[in-house]
Amino acid sequence: MDVFGSFSLLLAFVCAVYAFLGGMVAIKTRHPLLVKSTRQAGMATCVLIFIATLSLEYLLFTDTFSMAYVVSHSNRDLSTFYKFAALWAGQEGSLLFWSTLLSIYVLSVLIAYRHKNGELMPYVGVILAGVQIFFLTLNNFVENPFKTLATVSASGALEPFTRLDGNGLNPLLQYPEMVIHPPNLYSGYTGFTIPFAFALAALLARYPGEKWIHLTRKWTMIAWCFQSVGILLGAHWAYAVLGWGGYWGWDPVENASLLPWLSGTAFLHSVMMQEKRGMMKVWNVWLVFSTFLLCILGTFLTRSGVVSSVHAFANSQIGPWFVGFIILTILVCFAAYFKNRDYLKSENVLDSMVSRESSFLFNNLLFLVACIAVLSGTLFPVFSEWFTSNRISVGAPFFNKVMIPIGLAILFLTGVGPLLAWRKTSLDSLKRNFGWPLLVGIFFGIAAFVLGYRDGASMLCLFLCGFVTWTIVLEFYRGAKVIRARTGMSLMMGAHELAMRNTRRYGGYVVHFGMVLIFIGLAGAAFNIDTQKAMNVGDSLKLGPYTLVLQSGDTKVDKNYTAQRMIVEVLKGNKQIMLLYPEKRQFQGNEQAAGTMVAIYSTLREDLYVVYAGMDPEANVPVIHAFLNPLVKWIWLGGVWVVMGTLLALMPNRRATLVLAATTQPAAAVPGEPALTPHVSLREGHD
Amino acid sequence: MTKLKRIAFLCVLVAFACGPLLTAQVGYSQRAKQIGMHLKCMCRGCDMSAGGCAHPGGAFSGPCDTAKAMLKEVDQHLAKGESEQQIIDAFVAEYGTVVYVEPPKKGFGLVAWLMPVFYSLVGFGLVIFVVRKWAVRPASAGSAGSQVHNEAMDRARAQAARETED
Q1: Among the four A166, A245, A334, A674, which has the fewest Cβ within 10 Å?
Q2: Which of B22, B60, B94 has the highest number of chain A CBs within 10 A, making it the mutation to test binding with A?
Q3: What is the pTM of this model?
Q4: Is this prediction's ipTM beyond 0.85?
């Protein structure tokens, strides 16, 4: 199976090269058979990558310990669930997984548009094949996952060698979210390849108008949604497994995932300027290019060892390959732009400073500043080493100080933007629109103060959360009121109808509301407290309103690990709330690393986060580390709303139509007057 | 001495008596932990601050041995009456600038702090410039012809959007 997988990868590489070179010839000659042949080669590339991936999964499931990758990332007692996830646990497997996810997108695009957009698709196919060639080069020649173990025999020849068992999966990865977090994040990274390919193709082909934007709108939203979910799942995984009480540490790997998310979010907003007003064509193209490049740059940063990270891929030699690919992509983008920049000419006209258009400009400014600030902060240790020979570390406190004001400004614009009209907003309209949201914001601020959240940035954040929430409520209310007046629907049904008629707009508002919930959660971070204590059975520990009593401890033996478990009773006042079971796990095959299973009592107000840290080396008694983290649950709830909003935005609009419907005779008809012909009234319906 | 004062005095006595015990239990003081939040744990394995080290993946999910040693060292500096800045400087002298958790607001470290301000100002200036440039077309933007043109364009775009809806 290893030979099968390896051969599939090699064949995929050959097909991708054919799709790339043949595609370029097809663009020149326009020969329909060649166009079809290269498209099918692109599809074959994807299928062959799937086969290679299935081969590696088969080797993992069958405990083939003659394979270096299987030995490094699996063991016999590892559950099937985690054997599946071992595919992306190491450098080689995760790069293959990257190619696989990219192939899903590529195959979908090639199939979906096989009979459409004939002028554009050959270019798209060539660009996608080019990206695939890069990753297949890594898969085949740099980080091949199908390497077998070998030993040197007495005669000096290499002989195949099979280990009895593997080293096992990194304990930190043995958590259910590990199975879904990387696929989501990678789907985000790889998904941005599609809008990139279409943007570059449209530029190269001088494809008319904004059609590339219409074509890629959904692909961009899908990639963005995966990226958002991936980031949040990563944060939740870090929170539930690492045992440090936090969810975001501004680690370079986390930052790398945030970079394309920030530029992608800017793109999702600025693209509306082009759709509505035909403006910012150049800017949008470069935003898409940048987003794709940031995906590649982020991968380079975290897999090359350029910046230090707690994540596992830091020691590798693939850095130069990524640098080469980034430089080549930048050159291609610049060349395409300078050759065809006249095609992107647009008539940019602003009727007023106070308009939706200008709010989008400031929105893009803030997202880009946030993106560059994260990037420069992540790279600063490298810069400092270049310029001064001393490496200056940049950790979480720096990013928090820089990003909090930017985040608050973005939150402010989230509320202001939708209140501004396209072209021009009058002073009256501003007064009418801002009054209630401001009042609600002030109420939120006062409530925060009364509830004890007395930190400047947190109070400002909660004030803005109230403000933005009310602007969203008003948007739904006003629209629903109009529908109620026209159709007689209830307000709730009207709001539903409204959302279904303009899914993208109202889906966007739902996403905004999700972000508000996330910001509420982030505001709580200023009030985190923690305490740590070595405890004998019966000892208690007080934290905020809670008292923790160590009831007992036991040992839990699983096939793949042995866990030391503490049983901690949680009391609030004198009332017993629940029992928590924090664990420390020692996994088979991993002698050095241990895993932590945090026990969390989560409410909307706060999380009681209890870690069994291990045995105190001096006193030889269990050490309990407890954290009280306010409002964290709101972050995960916000994530759910973001996903729901994006799904809504992806749905097709329900179209409002005017239909004729008979109505009953008015009750107050005057007797004796000639009977009215059954009259008709206009009411709105939809197909 | 009133009863209230006596209770307060007793509380202070108890606090003084228990303080060293608490320190002895974890091996470092609360103040050391606070200062440790500004120093990077130099175990080169966790990338956390010495004060906030949870050493994920370690046998002990709390300050690792390196972090504990650093926090005890902070306590030694505190015992000599040194200020927070003096202590941080002492650690920088010992480990180099890599021990900072956030760049210092002096020397090359200041660049890290100024960069976001610089981007923001340049970006803000650019947006203002662009807005002003785009706004300086009243003749074409405000004319009736242009209005018609814009409306026609809007309709055409809406139609294009519908027709290309996937």
Answers
A1: A674
A2: B60
A3: 0.86
A4: no
